[in-house]
Amino acid sequence: AAEKQSEVKPLVVMFPWLLARKNHISKYYDIYLSRGYDVLSVSITPWQFFWPLTGTQVVASDLIDYLYNCSRQTLFVHGFSVGAYLWGECLVKLNSDLAKYTLLMSKIKGQIWDSAADITETSKGLPQAMFPRNAFLKSTMEKYVDYHLRTFYDTATQHYLRASQLFHTTPVRAPCLVFVSKNDPIGSVIANIKAKESWDSMGMKVYWKCWEKSRHVSHLMLHRDEYLAALHAFLDSVETELQQSMIKQVSSLGV
């Protein structure tokens, strides 16, 4: 009975930012747990990011395999910063066999993107995550990331670009909520607007929450009431739509 009950609960697949601390990310788990959802957190290390063929793509493939065999009917995706890249690799996998994954993709009912970082911001975001308090190491890592992107095109850069392309032209057309701020150099408003415009052009519903001043992956901490109001309103609207479509299905069966 407990298993059956868990199948009914929505599952949120969360993609934390790089090297996120558990006590920071758990604040987001609590939001969903308080709504009766379950949360599955999937993250990558800097090494897995640098070497996608043996790193991020393996994580993405394992996750899609798990979700494909999962009996949950309702899935949400909530990603932060470089988590958008990990989801991009998941989309590459989904896109490789759309017929096989049609049912899985239809189960994804909503997407939340918080400070999503595109490949163009990688050289800023990765060093900041790894060395937030050491200017010398941060600067050294910025130089290394630029070198890595130039040097390892076949084994790294082309995969980042493909994942970014799929993030923009996603086969998963569920409604999106985007959290962003104008003064975030890592999850830049310009890159997020490009993604939004692409999704708009495909007829996706995109809800947009942009602050003049905030901080990368810190919107919940700095603007708690506004963040929670936008997130709960989004989740409520998705739930309402799901209930209405279920009522339509039942009435069409003449029950």
From TrEMBL:
It comes from the Eukaryota. Pfam families: DUF829. One of its GO terms (molecular function) is serine hydrolase activity. InterPro entries: AB_hydrolase_fold, DUF829_TMEM53. This is Uncharacterized protein.
